[in-house]
Amino acid sequence: MIHWNSFADFLAMGGYGFYVWGSFGATVLIMAIEPIMVARNRKTTITRLQRQMRAETRAENRNTAE
Predict the structure, then answer these.
(1) Buried (b) or exposed (e) across 18-55, using 16+ Cβ within 10 A?
(2) How big is the CA angle at 19 (ends 8 and 14), to the nearest 5 degrees?
(3) Euclidean distance between CA atoms 17 and 54, whole angstroms
(4) Measuring CA to CA, which residue among 28, 27, 3 is closest to residue 14?
């Protein structure tokens, strides 16, 4: 079990604090951004599919009208 004498020792992590807390921060940042990116990509994909379906419907209507 690891014991620290002070909060500053805990943050320093035996000299590896920059790497430990930097890694932790990067992970938190990525996990916060991921749902935002998924929602944005989902919206873009749905819009693209709707546009494609409208174009296909128009093309089918033109072909049946001829």
Answers:
(1) eeeeeeeeeeeeeeeeeeeeeeeeeeeeeeeeeeeeee
(2) 40
(3) 55
(4) 3
- Domains of the chain: which residue ranges? 9-65
Q: Is the pTM of this model over 0.70?
A: no
Residue 2 has phi, psi (to 5 degrees) of -100, 135
Q: Which two tokens stand for residue 42?
A: 């989902």
Number of CB atoms found within 10 A of residue 10's CB: 13
Q: 28-55, pLDDT tens digit by residue?
A: 999 999 999 999 999 999 999 999 999 9
